[in-house]
Design brief:
Layout lengths: L3 H12 L1 H4 L1 H9 L5 H10 L7 H8 L4 H5 L5 H4 L2 H19 L8 H14 L6 H7 L7 H26 L4 H12 L2 H8 L3 H13 L3 E2 L2 E2 L1 H18 L8 H18 L16
Antiparallel strand pairs: 1-2
Helix pairs in contact: 1-11, 1-16, 3-8, 4-8, 8-11, 9-11, 10-11, 11-15, 12-14
Length: 279
């Protein structure tokens, strides 16, 4: 049976062209958002309106506050949220069509109809990024509609993941340190999330004191906690998909998984800061 975790690996790859495709970067630079990080923070935060650095840091959860403050709120003097939203859709659609040349021949109308039903059924209480994206107008263009649906659903999952981390007393940096103990992603996350070596070491010390790390790796309790958070993330992410039948979910996977595989790693690198596995 195709479940929320299996579909996440597919939908995430389609959404992530926004961050990694040259067409996406060209679109945000065209509206004045020069540089990767200005574009990233403006386009991802734009559904929230002119959010400040504190709000973006809290909602995104995993960036160093000083790193966020380098871009936010300054990005809103360069481009309005409406301009950033238009640029991210334009860039994503251009990227998908450029890197998936047969995309318009796919049965996207059927796929997006199912995805729209799933998105409309999503409960967004306590999920700020999912709610903000779900309130945006549904695009008429089928490729834009596909990308929009992947965005709502990946933020819905992400919001649930953040809520679970917070409930377990795991801050954004601590989450990276726990991940590194499992997959060796330390240098990637230090480089892409703005934390210092000193901050990383302090977080590792806190996790060691809690019994979650031992001798530089995950302790048995640390493994148990990570497995619990991942399992509960999957369970909380499942709710919207109840709006589709098992057959419809299987058909979604059958259409979209080949597209996702074509994007990874050609456009979406692996490993990547997002932590998404290969589809």
């Amino acid at each position: 049976m195709t479940g929320p975790r299996e579909l996440w690996t597919v939908l995430e790859a389609i959404h992530d062209v926004t961050y990694f495709a040259p067409e996406a970067r060209a679109a945000h630079e065209a509206v004045g958002l020069r540089g990767f990080w200005r574009g990233y923070f403006a386009m991802r935060a734009a559904p929230l309106g002119e959010a400040g650095a504190g709000t973006v840091t809290a909602v995104f959860h995993n960036f160093a506050p000083s790193f966020v403050a380098r871009a936010v709120p300054g990005v809103w003097t360069l481009a309005s949220p409406a301009q950033a939203l238009a640029a991210r859709t334009e860039g994503a659609v251009a990227a998908l069509r450029a890197h998936l040349p047969g995309l318009d021949a796919e049965p996207l109308a059927e796929v997006t109809a199912v995805l729209r039903r799933i998105v409309r059924s999503a409960h967004c209480e306590g999920r700020p990024l999912a709610a903000a994206n779900a309130e945006l107008e549904w695009p008429d263009d089928p490729v834009a509609a596909l990308w929009h649906a992947t965005s709502v659903l990946r933020e819905h999952r992400g919001d649930g993941h953040v809520a679970l981390l917070v409930s377990e007393g795991i801050g954004g940096l601590e989450a990276h340190v726990l991940r590194d103990a499992a997959d060796g992603s330390r240098q990637l996350m230090l480089r892409s999330r703005g934390w210092t070596e000193e901050e990383w070491q302090a977080a590792a010390a806190r996790l060691t004191a809690r019994g979650l790390l031992a001798e530089g790796g995950l302790s048995a309790e640390g493994r148990r906690l990570r497995e619990h958070i991942e399992r509960r993330t999957d369970e909380l992410a499942a709710q919207p998909y109840a709006a589709a039948t098992d057959t419809e979910l299987h058909e979604l996977d059958a259409v979209l998984r080949p597209l996702a595989k074509a994007l990874v790693p050609a456009v979406v690198p692996t490993p990547n800061p997002v932590g998404a596995p290969e589809p």
